[in-house]
Amino acid sequence: MAVMIGIPGLIIYLSLFVVLFWMLHKVKRNSENKTTQITIHGIQATLIGYFVANLFFFDTFATYLMFFTIVGYSLFLIYSNNENSENSNTPKQIKGKVLIIGTLSVFLILFLWQYNFLPLQINAEINRADTLIANKNCDKAFLAMDNLLTKHSFLDSYVRSSYVDQIKKCANLYPENDLSYAKKGMEVLKEAVKIRPLYSRFWIFLGSFAIVQADAEENPETKQNLINEANSYLDKASELAPNHQEIIIEQAKISMVEKNYAKMGERAEECIAKEESAGECYWIRAFSKIYLGNLDQVQKDIRTAEEKGFLVYSVSSLYQLVNAYADTKSYQQLASVYEQLITINPDVAEYHSSLAFTYYQLGEYQKARTEAQKFLELMPEAEDEVKAFLKMLPN
To answer: What is the pLDDT of residue 117?
Structure first.
């Protein structure tokens, strides 16, 4: 109880036992009915037994049901034996009780609204947003979540945590929008860490979104500022959760943005040593090998990452491979990844145009023509560009 609800909550919980036991004792002492005395004695013994048993195991639904039944029956015994004295109240006492009950009712209504009805409404909106994302409608989901951010309750941290999870899901669905999603995520998380500054995952996500922005930034000074910002967030996360593999993974991504691929490989090895079952550690090591030119060893790490549960063939993961192979001009591997993307989403015109250019680089001109024609079918308005590209191809 102390862990779940804190020391003040534990005091309230223990006070319930003390008050019930004392009130039952008073009724037992004042009652002349032997049956009542024996019944109350049994209830007191049950409360003691329940309390002692609870020192050795956690409550379950069954034990809670028994406990609330005992509490309810105890209150019935206390009330029924004080009923006569209640009926002898003066009008002044009755009026005072009505006033107290009325005041408490107002607080009850406020409590129910703030801690029952409003949270139910908020949770329903979060579930609706999740459904929209499951249907790949991220824009509408974000609009619903933006409206939720204006409704303040004790669920403020949970709402922002859910929003960040949804942003990450949408980034997996639409990796081309990574940068805009990262900016949105940063705004949400900067509010979230004010509410829960000791929640390490918020700081990890802040670092992750800062890295995405740094990777897309062309201005060297701004890029370095974003890298420094990401490092500060991850340092804070490391203080709260030392040696967490997600922190090491994000630090490896910083090394990739800095083009320090040897350091990136070292981070990946450190991650594997900390958590051998984390598939993303092997995924990161594969990328360090791509940039260091060890292409013959890349597929082994990718297979291991898949075996460890990392989604190596999701759209977002394949997008990462596209960027790495394009940066290193590894056209044979790049063509293979684009072929996989087309298998997943054959109606994305960009994939066909990129694959056509990749085939051109490989000297596979007939395949390049085929992909260019498919691109033209999907983008008829690009006819002039396609014709110019086809003229570049030898017969």
So the answer is: 87
